[in-house]
Amino acid sequence: MNKSVFITGATSGFGRAAARRFAEAGYALVLTGRRRERLEALEQELSGKVAVHVIELDVRDEAAVKKAVDELPQKFSSVHVLLNNAGLALAPEPAQDVALQDWHTMIDTNVKGLVNVTHALLPTLIRLGAGTSIVNIGSTAGKWPYKGSHVYGATKAFVEQFSYNLRCDLQGTGVRVTDIAPGMAETEFTLVRTKGDQAASDQLYGNTTPMSAEDIAEQMFYVATLPAHLNINFLEIQPVRQVWAGMAVDRDE
Ligand SMILES: NC(=O)C1=CN([C@@H]2O[C@H](COP(=O)(O)OP(=O)(O)OC[C@H]3O[C@@H](n4cnc5c(N)ncnc54)[C@H](OP(=O)(O)O)[C@@H]3O)[C@@H](O)[C@H]2O)C=CC1
Ligand SMILES: O=CCS(=O)(=O)O
């Protein structure tokens, strides 16, 4: 049986690096995301090594997610690993200045999108049983509050608790669930968050040593390929040069 990995958000950052990492190990790839041209470029890059199936997919579209899973070609239908990676932060400004739509977009993508894909693939993962994995991408923002994180951090707290609760319900099926919670990693994340401010992105990642997409892809691969009797519940990972912020105090002038 050819094992496949189903990756959401394979067009950039962690998801694209994960596609390359799992290809190295011979997994058939189901690569999804909204940007078709990027999916096709990755398909062209990797299809000499492994079987690749690309699906232009918005995880917020419940019906499209179900259709994509139901119509997986037979060669890709043994999904041993689900990488729930698609997600985004928007609106770094304070909560009181945010456009409501940005909050909705984060909830719809990071919470409802992740739930849509998980629900659609659970029957397959349970059928295949021991050794299969759901790897959810949370964030340090799900545990550690900071200014401008508002709904983003809250969506990632959802991802953490949903992962633990899934573990409970999946006991006895052999399906593993891990929440990987990265800190600062250089991808297109900040470009998306700032709606295209390259200078802000360069400034955040400049003069320090952030994690790379490949660093996180390696962790995704690690947790998903452990011996079948092991489950890493939560894996928080930061660059050595990043630590927690301190308490903030409001003072009179
Ligand atoms: N970089 C960081 O510092 C950290 C990132 N994370 C999380 O890691 C995950 C990956 O982010 P990262 O690689 O950094 O960022 P990127 O912006 O580089 O990649 C995000 C990916 O998510 C996809 N995506 C976004 N919205 C949707 C949607 N509605 N439907 C389908 N796919 C979507 C994008 O694809 P497309 O636009 O083509 O649809 C893209 O492939 C996210 O969940 C993010 O919250 C967590 C902690 C730290
Ligand atoms: O999830 C991303 C990491 S951070 O920008 O919230 O620190």
Descriptive notes:
It is a single chain. With 253 residues, this protein is of the alpha/beta class. It has a single domain, classed as NAD(P)-binding Rossmann-like Domain (Rossmann fold, 3-Layer(aba) Sandwich). Strands 3-2-1-4-5-6-9 form a seven-stranded parallel sheet, sandwiched between helices. It has a two-stranded parallel ribbon with strand order 7-8. The longest helix has 29 residues. The ligand O=CCS(=O)(=O)O binds next to loops. InterPro entries: KR_dom, NAD(P)-bd_dom_sf, Sc_DH/Rdtase_CS, SDR_fam. This is sulfoacetaldehyde reductase (NADPH). One of its GO terms (molecular function) is oxidoreductase activity, acting on the CH-OH group of donors, NAD or NADP as acceptor.
Key features?
single chain, 253 residues, alpha/beta, Rossmann fold, seven-stranded parallel beta sheet, 9 strands, 42% helix, globular, binds NADPH dihydro-nicotinamide-adenine-dinucleotide phosphate, binds the ligand O=CCS(=O)(=O)O
| CATH homologous superfamily annotation | NAD(P)-binding Rossmann-like Domain
Give me the secondary-structure category: alpha/beta
Helix-residue proportion: 40-55%
Beta fraction: 15-25%
GO molecular function, one term: oxidoreductase activity, acting on the CH-OH group of donors, NAD or NADP as acceptor
InterPro entries: KR_dom (IPR057326), NAD(P)-bd_dom_sf (IPR036291), Sc_DH/Rdtase_CS (IPR020904), SDR_fam (IPR002347)
Family: Belongs to the short-chain dehydrogenases/reductases (SDR) family.
Catalytic activity: 2-hydroxyethane-1-sulfonate + NADP(+) = sulfoacetaldehyde + NADPH + H(+)
